Write a sequence for this structure.
């Protein structure tokens, strides 16, 4: 026997007029009214975008011009007499960017991965398990972000100069951590792990604890719950943090300048200071160097744009 529920339902097709009427109705509902507050908001956003883009566009434009014979004589916004890549070639050579890019990679990549790994472990321990001081421990890590990094400069330099370090692990041959890339890596890890722990802890709170309990019932230990259950579910937060942290670590100038004494060991951001000393008045050359230095962060942002924007609101829904 065939029940009534099994009987096919006849659906009459819409006519062209009915279909267009529905489209017009949907478009009418989706169309937002042009009100005065909306016009003011759009005007404000466009103005702010131009304020940010005009200096950047001017720097890009003038980086292809000769400063002494063109920009200085005709002005920054005048039509160019000639366009050349000479500023980029000179900045790359004088700033020794081939070596400073490598120095930056040696500093940023280990600091980034170690920071994310350690902060995810701390966040996992503080959010997935209940123990006596888990909240206090999490607050302690978060409170580290409140101290200005410049306050710790002198004590850290004295501390690193007293910590022995093998010479074969450094090009400085000082016998201590002072002046080595390892000292910058350790500083970055120490100062960034608090923020990453705070964000990852808030994100992990949104993961149901029943998943870990089910894994424990199946015989999974703590390490397996971390690596095979929680960590894969935390990939969106880790990707967003990786984008943000790469930008911050790469753009760091303070610690790379004060902790590394040798010019050949300094990161890419120090190339600007070298050019400022040798070509203080050639603003087009400095603009070309700034653009080359900013390119890696721009590429990372464009490649991971969704994760970067999502990282601005991570952990905002549940605290």
């Amino acid at each position: 026997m065939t029940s009534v529920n099994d009987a096919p339902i006849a659906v009459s097709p819409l006519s062209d007029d009915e279909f267009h009427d529905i489209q017009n109705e949907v478009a009418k509902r989706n169309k937002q009214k042009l009100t005065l507050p909306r016009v003011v908001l759009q005007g404000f956003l466009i103005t702010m975008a131009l304020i940010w883009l005009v200096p950047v566009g001017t720097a890009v434009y003038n980086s292809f011009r000769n400063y002494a014979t063109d920009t200085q004589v005709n002005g920054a916004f005048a039509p160019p007499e000639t366009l050349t890549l000479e500023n980029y070639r000179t900045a790359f050579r004088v700033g020794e960017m081939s070596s400073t890019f490598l120095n930056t990679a040696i500093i940023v990549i280990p600091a980034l991965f170690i920071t994310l790994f350690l902060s995810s472990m701390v966040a996992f321990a503080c959010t997935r398990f209940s123990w006596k001081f888990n909240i206090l421990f999490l607050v302690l890590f978060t409170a580290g972000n409140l101290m200005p990094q410049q306050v710790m400069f002198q004590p850290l330099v004295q501390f690193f100069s007293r910590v022995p370090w093998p010479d074969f692990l450094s090009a400085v041959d000082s016998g201590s951590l002072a002046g080595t890339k390892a000292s910058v890596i350790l500083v970055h890890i120490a100062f960034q792990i608090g923020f990453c722990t705070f964000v990852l802890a808030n994100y992990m709170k949104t993961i149901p604890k029943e998943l870990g309990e089910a894994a424990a019932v199946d015989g999974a230990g703590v390490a397996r719950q971390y690596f095979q259950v929680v960590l894969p579910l935390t990939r969106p937060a880790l990707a967003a943090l990786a984008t943000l942290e790469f930008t911050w670590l790469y753009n760091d100038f303070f610690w790379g300048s004060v902790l590394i004494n040798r010019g050949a060991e300094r990161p890419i951001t120090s190339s600007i200071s070298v050019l400022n000393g040798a070509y203080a008045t050639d603003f087009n050359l400095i603009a070309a160097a700034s653009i080359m230095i900013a390119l890696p962060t721009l590429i990372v942002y464009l490649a991971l744009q969704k994760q970067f924007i999502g990282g601005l609101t991570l952990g905002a829904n549940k605290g």
User: Anything to note?
Assistant: Residues 97-128 form the longest helix (32 residues).
